[in-house]
Write a structure and sequence with these properties.
With 478 residues, this protein is mainly beta. Helix content is 11%, strand content 34%. The chain has a four-stranded antiparallel sheet with strand order 1-28-27-26, with no helix packed on it. A four-stranded antiparallel sheet has the order 2-3-4-5, with no helix packed on it. The N terminus is likely disordered.
Length: 478
């Protein structure tokens, strides 16, 4: 029945609906926080909820008058110390234990109906205490717990101190002498050049490949240098005679990466034929082919214990290999993009892998995922290396060189390489990087045909370069 003008303006059905919903919302706001709680809220608890943190609440509750504790029971009422649940480490704790009460820290008066035994404090139930992982269900008693994410160690920033020019093409690969006196680089100009580490002068140029050289490795057990390139060839160079003494034939396409086993005389190579091949260094025999990847094998490293071989591929997976059986032990599928680079930590049983989506850390030997690095470089990462001090360096397709703290995953420095005069801006690309044996110098190989050398800034201090670290709020477990 419509209302007349004498009764006032007509009430629209829509506004009635709004009023009903608003009333329901108010009821929900009033009673939803108290749902399944043991204690009824009162004016004092409201004041506490809007004001103080948990530690400050106890002082306000501890000295309540007796008549507020049990609703004014008169002469027979208990003293104030027995009306509020006891605080850890205070005098009330001892009183509470004498009276048989629990030491849960809920600072509101006891005005409750008979509750099930499973929900009564002290009956197989422990309410939250500061520093514990359990949380009480109301926002009034939510305490701020400190982040358990490890704080990063302070590292000095790195700076470029030398630029070496000498190659006529992109510099694609690098390897260091175990004696830390020289390093070698392979380039798209089909040559391998050996440089003095201290002065940066050219010592020797080796020619023999007919395509760009994508992989280099220097043996710690022999005077051998191994190289691999897009010409499908894997060569062994004798550094006493400076010539090729063996060639390993078997790859069906370009060879993108290679690694030497630290204790056995075998060589591992991966390429565009999606296979990681195992070679005997001494006899140039093809020992086995580790098959299972669906795309190019572009990164590999070897360990003395299982898994002895770990490969990363353009098919976005990382595989652990049983070298004796010649089959896969485990496959990691955490990445969404090509795994172009991996770095084994020199001390810890862990390694990092880089992809265009993220940089991830895994433990060894089982390959459990540890965590992501806390920032995203947002580029294709071609190379990465880590030293004993826990400084992880990653080089990207856009010329970005980022430095990370290994333990926490904090990115403490972001640098950008500068292309040489006469080069295109698009040639600001880092293809390979490596630390020297001491870990105090970093060498990057770039698309502007140069080799850049980096070292720590010795004048930097924690005061001049403070750590700007914010622990992550949510930890991505994938």
């Amino acid at each position: 029945m419509a209302t007349t003008a004498a009764d006032g303006p007509p009430v629209e059905p829509q506004s009635l609906k709004k009023l009903s919903l608003r009333s329901l919302k108010r009821s929900l706001d009033l009673f939803a926080p108290a749902h399944a709680l043991l204690f009824t809220p009162d004016a004092e608890s409201k004041r506490i909820r809007t004001g103080c943190k948990v530690r400050a609440e106890y002082g306000a509750v501890k000295d309540l008058p007796p008549e507020q504790g049990r609703g004014g029971q008169g002469k027979g009422s208990a003293p104030p110390s027995s009306t509020a649940l006891a605080l850890p480490g205070t005098k009330d704790t001892k009183d509470g234990h004498r009276e048989g009460t629990s030491n849960a820290i809920v600072p509101v008066p006891l005005m409750l109906p008979k509750a099930p035994e499973s929900t009564i404090p002290g009956k197989n139930t422990t309410l939250s205490i500061p520093g514990s992982s359990d949380r009480f269900s109301t926002s009034a008693l939510m305490e701020r717990i400190p982040s358990r994410w490890p704080r990063p160690i302070w590292h000095a920033p790195w700076k470029n101190y030398r630029v070496i020019s000498g190659h006529l093409g992109w510099v694609r690969s690098i390897a260091f002498d175990p004696g830390n006196e020289w390093f070698c680089t392979g380039s798209a100009d089909r040559t391998i050049k050996i440089w003095d580490l201290a002065s940066g002068t050219l010592k020797l140029t080796l020619t023999g490949h007919i395509e760009q050289i994508r992989g280099l490795a220097v043996s710690q057990r022999h005077t051998y240098l191994f190289s691999a390139g897009d010409d499908k060839q894997v060569k062994c160079w004798d550094l006493e005679q400076n010539k090729v003494i063996r060639s390993y034939h078997g790859h069906l396409s370009g060879v993108y990466c290679l690694a030497l086993h630290p204790t056995i005389d075998i060589l591992l190579t991966g390429g565009r034929d999606s296979v990681c091949r195992v070679w005997d260094i001494r006899t140039k025999a093809h020992v086995s082919a580790l098959t299972g990847h669906d795309n190019t094998v572009c990164s590999v490293f070897a360990r003395p214990t299982d898994p002895q071989v770990v490969t990363g591929s353009h098919d976005t997976t990382i595989k652990f290999w049983d070298l004796v059986a010649g089959r896969t032990m485990c496959t990691l599928t955490h990445h969404k993009k090509s795994v172009r680079a991996m770095a084994l930590h020199p001390k810890e049983k862990a390694f990092a892998s880089a992809s265009a989506d993220n940089i991830k850390k895994f433990s060894l030997p089982r390959g459990e995922f540890l965590h992501n690095m806390l920032s995203q470089q947002k580029t294709i990462i071609n190379a990465m290396a880590v030293n004993e001090d826990g400084v992880l360096a990653t080089g990207g397709d856009n010329g970005s060189l980022w430095f990370w703290d290994w333990k926490s995953g904090h990115n403490f420095q972001q640098d950008q390489t500068i292309v040489q005069p006469g080069s295109l801006e698009s040639e600001a690309c880092i293809y390979a990087l490596s630390y020297d044996v001491s870990g105090s110098r970093l060498v990057t190989c770039e698309a502007d045909k140069t080799i850049k050398m980096w070292k720590e800034d010795l004048t930097a201090t924690p005061e001049t370069h403070p750590i700007n670290f914010k622990p992550p709020k949510d930890i991505r477990r994938y």
